[in-house]
Amino acid sequence: MSDLVIRPAAEADLPAIVALLAEDVLGRERDDPSLPLGDGYVRAFAEIQRRPDQHLMVGELGGEVVATLQLTFVPGLARKGAWRGIVEAVHVRGDRRSRGLGGRMIAWAAETARARGDCPFLQLTTDKRRLDAHRFYEREGFRRSHEGYKLLL
After folding, report:
1. pLDDT tens, N- to C-terminus, the chain (153 residues)
2. SS3 label, residue 71
3. pTM of model > 0.90
4. At what angle do helices 39-50 and 14-21 cross, to 10 degrees?
């Protein structure tokens, strides 16, 4: 897909991003794409925009948002002070899957992390029920190296 444009998200993209997040069964449990969007989405977007180590990106085809991901850089002491690139909320619209768009988004994240010079790896978590996502990430070179946990507060 040579016409995919990967660019920073703008506030006007929020409805499309939230729709992507809410598109599958798990997302429908957690997100609400109804308009007007809840204030939490607008506040979170503004906070992401303020932080230089946060990158909320969209993938656009023909002026239409069809993919998104968030890349966050976090410093750490382990691994000799290496930064981590944390990939979150990778979504490609259902009617556009299996066309290489997700791979392009992940490649953008990997190149961005590599270009920093201080971030030797990307890491992510995905719900255990998202078996298609597991296969996708493994095709993209990710390896199951850790067991993740979440504490709901």
Report:
1. 469 999 999 999 999 999 999 998 888 999 999 999 999 999 999 999 999 999 999 999 999 999 999 999 999 999 999 999 999 999 999 999 999 999 999 999 999 999 999 999 999 999 999 999 999 999 999 999 998 888 989
2. strand
3. yes
4. 110
Q: Quickly list DSSP for the chain.
A: -TT-EEEE--GGGHHHHHHHHTSSHHHHHH---PSSPPHHHHHHHHHHHH-TTEEEEEEEETTEEEEEEEEEEE--SHHHH--EEEEEEEEE-GGGTTSSHHHHHHHHHHHHHHHHSS---EEE---TT-HHHHHHHHHTT------------
Helix, strand, coil in percent for the chain, rounding step 5? 40, 25, 35
Return the residue matching tokens 């992390």: 113
